[in-house]
Amino acid sequence: MTLGGWRSFTGREIVPESFRELVTRVFGISEDQIRDMYGLVETNFMAIECDRHAKHVPPWVHFSVRDLDNPSREVAPGEPGLLVVNDPLSLAYPGFIVTDDLVYLSKEPCGCGRNGQIVNYMYRIKGAEIGCCAINLEKYMSDKDGSVMECPIVWHPFSSQRR
């Protein structure tokens, strides 16, 4: 079981298929026993892969994928966009969470038989700080000399300017 973080210590992206191939060889298990999860520290869910490596969104959570140039427009399944999460169990946030993740939802149902949304993570949007919110918070809290004065994320999803 893994939880995202598809980068090596050198910062290079690790291809999931190559990772699963290595794990099957090293541990002597079948590829359908290797599962990845997608989640955010701000939410109370995990989208867990089935044996076909499709990440299933729990039924109480709704993923809305938004057009990067017009965030008021939700894109169709299969079309990439900015992920907005509606997690009713996340009581610390007002209704929904706008992420920095570019994703798309699968058009077709999964062959495993589970129902609901299937998320396909692509990458963090350009301009988003590398690392999750918890990592950014840790950097801010350990800033002894006060050099971190504002959020390092320079792109706002409701702005027309992307960097």
Nutshell version of this structure?
This protein has 163 residues and is α+β, with helices and mostly antiparallel strands.
Outline the structure in words:
The structure is a single chain. The protein has 163 residues and is an alpha+beta fold. It has a single domain (2-141), classed as Luciferase, domain 3. The chain is built from two helices and eight strands. It has helices at residues 16-27, 133-141, and strands spanning 2-3, 36-38, 47-49, 55-56, 62-66, 81-86, 97-105, 118-124. The protein is globular. The relative contact order is 0.14.
* Structural class computed from helices and strand pairing: alpha+beta
Strand order of the biggest β-sheet: 1-2-3-4-8-7-6-5
Discrete helix count: 2
What's the SSE pattern?
A: EHEEEEEEEH
What name does the CATH topology carry?
Luciferase, domain 3
| Unreliable stretches | 149-157, 159-163
Shape: globular
Q: Main sheet, how many strands, which sense, barrel?
A: 8 strands, mixed
Number of domains: 1
CATH architecture assignment name: Roll
CATH homologous superfamily heading: Luciferase, Domain 3
Mean pLDDT: 79
The total of beta strands comes to 8
What's the CATH class label? Mainly Beta
Radius of gyration: 17 Å
Give the proportion of residues in helices: 10-25%
- What is the terminal separation in angstroms? 34 Å
The percentage of residues in β strands lies in: 15-25%
Considering the chains and any ligands shown, give keywords for the structure:
globular, Luciferase, domain 3, alpha+beta, eight-stranded mixed beta sheet, 163 residues
